[in-house]
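Thread: Modeling a multi-component assembly for a lab meeting

Hi all, long-time lurker, first post. My supervisor asked me to bring a structural picture of a complex we are working on to next week's group meeting, and I have zero experience with this. I have the sequence lines for every component (536 residues in total). Could someone generate the structure of the whole assembly? Inputs are pasted exactly as I received them:
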Amino acid sequence: MIEVLTGSPLNTIQDLGRPRTMTLGVSRGGAMDSAALKLGNLLLGNDIDTAGIEVVFFPFKIRFHADQAFAVTGARGVARLDDEPLPPDWAAKARAGQILTLHAPANGARSYVTFAGGLDVPVVLGSRSTDMKGGFGGYQGRALEAGTRLAAFPSDAKDMPSSGYGLAHPCDLPENVAEVRCLPAAEFDAFTDDSQALFFEQLWTVTRTANRLGYRLESETPLSLRSPLELLSHGIVPGTVQVPSAGMPIVQMADANTCGGYPKIANVIEPDLRLLAQTQTGRQIRFIRVELDEAVAAIRAEAVRMHELGLALQSARTTLLAR
Amino acid sequence: MIRISSAGAGALLLDAARGAFNDSVQERIWAVARRMAALPEILQAVPGVNNLLIVFDTIQYDPAILEHSLRAVWEDTLVDASPAREIVLPVTYGGTFGEDIPVVARFAGLTEEEVIAAHVSGEYRVAAIGAMPGFAYLTGLDPRLAIPRRASPRVSVEQGAVSIGGGQAGVMPCTSPTGWHILGKTEEILFDAQRVEPCLFRLGDRVKFRRVG
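Re: Modeling a multi-component assembly
Sure thing. I ran the full set together rather than chain by chain. Output:
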């Protein structure tokens, strides 16, 4: 049993979300930094789609009421098991009574706490992810409040090295200006030549309203269309960069509405959505234009990297346990 | 006639709009969506209003091949022959849930009663489902009620609010922000994740409103 000690309307249970529910109007949802959640699960020998906690509000504290293997990945902040600091991207075993504390990160915006076996909450529409808009999934369809008690499924990965273990080279997080790759979208050519160039040249600041629904960005010069456009509502995927009439782009994220009507200038490629998700408010990003074949190659390379990481961690765990 | 553009490396948007909303184009969209959704390489086929988004697994399938099959299926598909159901939603007009009726009346040059009459007598059709869980874009709104969206959206509108916006009608399935104008309220539950069929509406359903207050 795990008890949440610090409540927040932003910390939620997430897995990899719902890839087939757009026809119900249900967002994909899932971890905003899906690579960090996958890593947290692979460290514990879990399936990559296992539910953990996405932490956006710090400090975040949980108490373990039973021995439990867990991992902390994602944003780079101080994490302590009682008084013992944990390295980044690290798995460890907590004893009953111990408290895990995650402090506000110096770099990155979202941390993930995963548990061997995964969190035992009901599967709704094919996922354990919390859908705040619909009020379902996760823990009773809402964020984690102080006092919430969660159970993890049993797992043989509880037999992990007592010292804990993790990545010698933790995952990259955006430093300074994150470079976010994207493809031009349906209305790219409807923007003025200047706006098309500015979109890639200007640095864009992540505003305070950035959340799981969307990242509103700001820069000096707003983007403008050659002439006003009235679009009928159409399906949009996470990563879609919409430009409302004020000219400041909004990148649609995991919990975005599944349909929209604003002109779309670009789509952030899937593996780079995590860079946005890990960019703190007030920091800047730059959009980098790629061609379709580069985007496809990047997506496939990321899948291969994750697969190889899983194999490497599996053999590392076996070796450590045999000692 | 149609435009297909990439919506990232894992999705394609087929846009068949020719200006204003067209009913027969929409029936073809539904039929194409159904055929595309049956292909193993498609994760989801999402009808919009005179357009269709298909989402696929880029790790296994090339966007160029998917674009080719989407175009081929479009050329080879006419209309959807599936029978339409009829759904009647009881609505209480006015009061706290009809705060925009006076605004719509001024816009349309009608009395408030005439606005209600125009809305309740409409024969609507579920063109697309999306945006929010269970939200349906209902076509068939009396053109006199085609008021633009509010200049600034309301931060929170309650579940069940019966609304109009952008020339279409809708009902709020959950409490959420919206820029649409509110005319009344229904007690029907439009979405419940625990139901076998979570959405009350299906594509193509014919929808009528019945005044209960």
